[in-house]
Specification:
This protein has 156 residues and is of the alpha+beta class. The chain folds into 2 domains: 77 residues, RimP-like superfamily, N-terminal (GMP Synthetase, Chain A, domain 3), CATH 3.30.300.70; 63 residues, SH3 type barrels. It is 23% helix and 44% strand. The strands form 2 sheets. The protein has a 5-stranded antiparallel sheet with strand order 7-6-5-4-8. It has a 3-stranded mixed sheet with strand order 1-2-3. Strand 5 and strand 6 form a beta hairpin.
Amino acid sequence: MQELTDKIKSLAETHLKDESFFIVDVISKGVSGKTKFLILLDGDKGVNIDDCADLSRKLAGEIELEDLIDFAYVLEVSSPGLDHPISSKRQYIKNIERRLKVKLSSETIVEGQLRSVSEDEIVLATEKKVDKKKVIEETSIPFSDIEKANVLVSFK
């Protein structure tokens, strides 16, 4: 199944509108006697429902043309959403200035505003209390220490 999932990802990448779009992941799972392929599409400036529908139509046509899948399946193209963890450097860059919740491999949770992304790490602006005052401190976190990172929802 992994080989088929990889093939679907490769096909999806050939049908992206332009270089500002990218595939975050392709997830396959069994659902009601069918296999569901969930393609997570993202873009440097976000994606909308039309972007997802466009990729879905093109990808479905290609899968049928190549007779790639010979069993019952469902194809869904969606944006990753806020509940899906950040999984690539490109997604971190896209989310600079947004607040993140980062779970480290040490089980520590760090929350703060994403300030920058380099080849090896991210920098978060975190709040600390010092003598009853809030102090902003920049914290560097190597990618190798990050177990999971999510964008926090802000209603401001």
